[in-house]
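Re: Re: ligand-bound prediction request (bumping)

Still looking for help on this. To restate: I need the protein modeled with pyridoxal-5'-phosphate bound, output as structure tokens. Inputs repeated here so nobody has to scroll up.
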Amino acid sequence: MKIEELVTMGETYLMNNYKRLPISFVEGKGCYVTDTENNKFLDFIGGIAVNNLGHSPEAVVTAIKEQAEKLMHVSNLFWIESQVTLAKILVENSFADKAFFCNSGAEANEGAIKLARKYAYKKFGNHKHEIIAMTGSFHGRTLGTLAITDNKKYQEGYGPIPEGFKFAEFNNIESVNALVNENTCGILVEPVQGEGGVTPATKEFLEALKVLCKEKDILLIFDEIQCGIARTGKLFAYQHFGVEPDIMSLAKALGGGFPIGAVVATEEIAAAWQPGDHGTTFGGNPLACASGVATLQTVINEKLWEKAETMGSYFAEKLQVFVDTYPWVKEVKGLGLMMGLELEIEGASIVQKAFNEGILINCTAGKVLRFVPPLVVEKEDIDIVIDALQEIFTEMEVE
Ligand SMILES: *Cc1c(COP(=O)(O)O)cnc(C)c1O
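Reply:
Sorry for the wait, this slipped through. Here it is.
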């Protein structure tokens, strides 16, 4: 279908909740995608940190094909081999002892909050239910996750928002201390904030949170939906800081492009859930978990976090030159291949100009150019992006 025709049809039949570029991709391999007019684009958005293995990675494609031909869905009334296998891989490679599977990031955070509340309810009673989230946070778009997302615009018009949630200042332990009381059930943090502007937590902050949580019987919950699965140069971002959470949510890259989410937790916390306490029809279905298994096996066999680390520092070094050259380019932020370039100006026009040059990047928090390419990216690809940005920046007139 021609793109003009597709846009007209889309505007007729789809709800208008997304702002889309007038382009449609039909094919992808590695870091490149091809549109309906056969134009090739270098993809540094990676499906918003989903395509860590690149587009249509062979191992995942094969796993999905084989599983689809055998069995796609049966429900959690029965045991599912790929689900159990995926749980085992997650447990063997993280702090966690148990896993639960769902279908998206928001759903994983809903599960994490419900698990934390149930645990506190059983151990301490109904009063201990408050969750402290951080300024700059993004945790999803369901009613529950909106309550912990620090963005008034996302909340507007959807009230009443569920209660029992508070916001402390990210990377400021005093601000967290000020909100903690006997009702505090959990503290929820992204070890590297994504939508909020690609901002890593400080080691001191996470360490202080861990001490605080231990002292006051509070659960430490990490949202690694964007920063997990090797993105930051470790399999999980918390491994940079030497601080283990009690509960962690995962999604985005976990299925190599196939939708899947997970909540993982320690044995003691996970035991708060007994049959009937939580569930979802599609969660952990054979197809999603087969893609999860293939994804994690590939990531682990290829030690893809090492690639994220080396390519990330190569990229960061090149981006730093812009900071040193242009007074309106403020700071290189991020970890591994979760990279941001903070500007003094709005970034939308730069995203558009890069798009015109065949490069997909994205802007978050208004002024932060965000780069979350597939982790299979090569130096030549990074050079292409840097050269294009160089050209765009040189031509820009900023007061
Ligand atoms: C994307 C994201 C979510 C929400 O995931 P969905 O699959 O869009 O519901 C939650 N937390 C973080 C940190 C994310 O980046």
